[in-house]
Design goal:
Helix content: 40-55%
Shape: globular
Number of strands: 10
Structural class: alpha+beta
Bound molecules: protoporphyrin IX containing FE, 2-acetamido-2-deoxy-beta-D-glucopyranose
CATH topology of the largest domain: Cytochrome p450
């Protein structure tokens, strides 16, 4: 009898736990299904996971294993190949988008979707934007993409890359590759951000601060802004255009406040500081390591650089802005590096109003979430997508939206041209004069956070 009761107890317990578990896993979905059951909305099917956490954990799990596919596939297998699914990520009800053409539609919207960074990230960089401010920000910073500003700074970029790589080559001890490349990309970028006439110590200080304590940055920028305002009052202008001066001297009629507050300017500068150098350093290193693994591409890229040097009138002259355009093979190497390295880029947008897309009506306050994986690792566009193959760019038709390292549309990365330019200059000198030798095991260079290398000058 006792045994019978005990067995019954356990069976009840097990059923209870399963029921509880089943309810727990669905309750979030039910909550939102009831909340948005109105005929006004038409939300695609999907799975919203646990309350509060939603699917965030399973997304992180799959992306850390380098395969967001397992996360995305789950929705396609369970809810059909529609390409839009309801989910719950970063604390918000979310529409997961996996079809390239729908991702494109989401990214191209200018009016109703805001840049949807998770709140903790907004707090980290101190962002407080609205759609109006966003548009204004983009207009103000548009020159960063322009041929004018980039060619104006080209000699500076060229000189910095050349002298810095030379310095690495004369260092006896192995260098921490990523850290050193961060420093290089940072220096180039900061000149563009704050202008020419700032001394070297300032750069060193900025770099330490940026890697150590991000908050301190705001204070430094404030001081800089004050100085620059003073200088402007005296009618002194900088020899070359830069972003800080563009922000300070704007008097934009369309914007209600008419002039940006210091707080807003600092916000923009901090955003640019963080967005502007880390990916450039990382992509340069990844390109270098890919080339090292594929000697035939390395050889081909090197020959292209030697041809460029041969065509020069004087063999002493450095690289010129126009020569960048002759680097056709290297630009394939860069595209291929970017394609693979940004396959996990997440695109986020928030709906600022009820939003119609592909026959669905999505409520205000929901998020759109897409991963570049669905595009960059799409075997219909890229044969054997996981392979590094610079030659695939020989015959890829570059239709819009099949390659989104910098996203696309009105909110895409304003630094794309600068980034490609910097990586091209780095690769030019690297290919001609240097090679790296990995000191620690291969595994630590992918990803290259702990990659120790000896930077060696090629003998002539
Ligand atoms: C290879 C290097 C880089 C990559 C892969 C990259 C990629 C991206 C991506 C994917 C976004 C998000 C766009 C979206 O949400 O649709 C972005 C935004 C941004 N990037 Fe870059 N970026 C790079 C270099 C740079 C550089 C050099 C700068 C500085 C000039 C920069 C400044 C920014 C800024 C300010 C934003 C925010 C734009 C906004 O919120 O409207 N990035 N970048
Ligand atoms: C690299 O990608 C860009 C952007 O899609 C494209 O315009 C360009 O033609 C590509 N470069 C090469 C060499 O294929
Ligand atoms: C690389 O791409 C080219 C062009 O698409 C192709 O002919 C070649 O077979 C590919 N190489 C490898 C190793 O897959």
């Amino acid at each position: 009898m006792d045994f019978y009761n005990l067995a019954l107890f356990f069976i009840t317990l097990v059923i209870g736990i399963f029921t509880f578990y089943a309810i727990l896993m669905r309750i979030n979905g039910w909550y939102y299904a009831i909340k948005f059951c109105s005929k006004k909305y038409n939300i695609p099917f999907g799975y919203m996971g646990l309350p509060y956490f939603g699917n965030t954990l399973s997304y992180f799990k799959s992306s850390m294993c380098g395969d967001p596919n397992s996360f995305l596939d789950f929705f396609a297998t369970r809810f059909g190949p529609g390409g839009m699914y309801r989910a719950y990520i970063f604390g918000k009800p979310t529409i997961l988008v996996t079809k390239p053409e729908i991702i494109r539609k989401v990214l191209m919207d200018e009016e109703y979707l805001e840049r949807g960074l998770p709140n903790y990230m907004k707090k980290l960089i101190g962002l407080t934007t609205s759609i109006e401010e966003d548009k204004y920000f983009r207009r103000l910073t548009a020159p960063v993409k322009s041929h004018g500003l980039l060619s104006d700074y080209f000699d500076y970029i060229d000189k910095t890359v050349r002298t810095t790589l030379e310095k690495y080559a004369t260092t006896e001890e192995p260098i921490e590759f990523l850290h050193k490349m961060h420093r290089l990309a940072f220096e180039v970028f900061m000149r563009l951000l704050i202008g020419d006439e700032v001394n070297q110590e300032f750069f060193d200080q900025m770099f330490e601060e940026i890697t150590a304590a991000r908050k301190v940055l705001g204070g430094i920028f404030q001081k800089l802004i004050d100085e620059r305002r003073e200088a402007m009052k005296d009618g002194k202008s900088m020899p070359r255009a830069n972003i800080i001066d563009m922000l300070l001297s704007n008097t934009n009629q369309d914007y209600e406040a008419n002039i940006l507050s210091d707080k807003k300017i600092i916000e923009i500068l901090v955003l640019f500081s963080f967005a502007g150098f880390e990916p450039v350093a990382l992509m340069s290193i990844k390109a270098i390591l890919h080339l090292q693994k594929h000697p035939h591409f390395l050889e081909k890229a090197k020959e292209e650089q030697e041809e460029i040097v041969k065509r020069r009138a004087s063999s002493n002259a450095g690289l010129s802005f126009d020569e960048i355009r002759q680097m056709t093979f290297v630009s394939k190497v860069i595209n291929e590096t970017l394609r693979i390295a940004t396959d996990q880029t997440v695109f986020l947008r928030d709906t600022s109003t009820t939003f119609n897309i592909n026959g669905y009506t999505i409520p205000k306050g929901w998020k759109f979430f897409a991963v570049a994986w669905n595009i960059h690792m799409n075997p219909d566009v890229y044969v054997q997508p996981k392979e590094f193959n610079a030659s695939r760019w020989d015959d890829i038709e570059t239709k819009p939206g099949i390659f989104l390292p910098f996203s696309m549309g009105p909110k895409s990365c304003p630094g794309s041209n600068l980034a490609k330019l910097q990586i091209s200059v780095i690769l030019h000198y690297y290919l001609l004069h240097y090679r790296v030798e990995q000191i620690n095991p291969e595994a630590r260079c992918y990803p290259p956070e702990n990659c120790l290398v000896k930077f060696k000058k090629l003998s002539l």
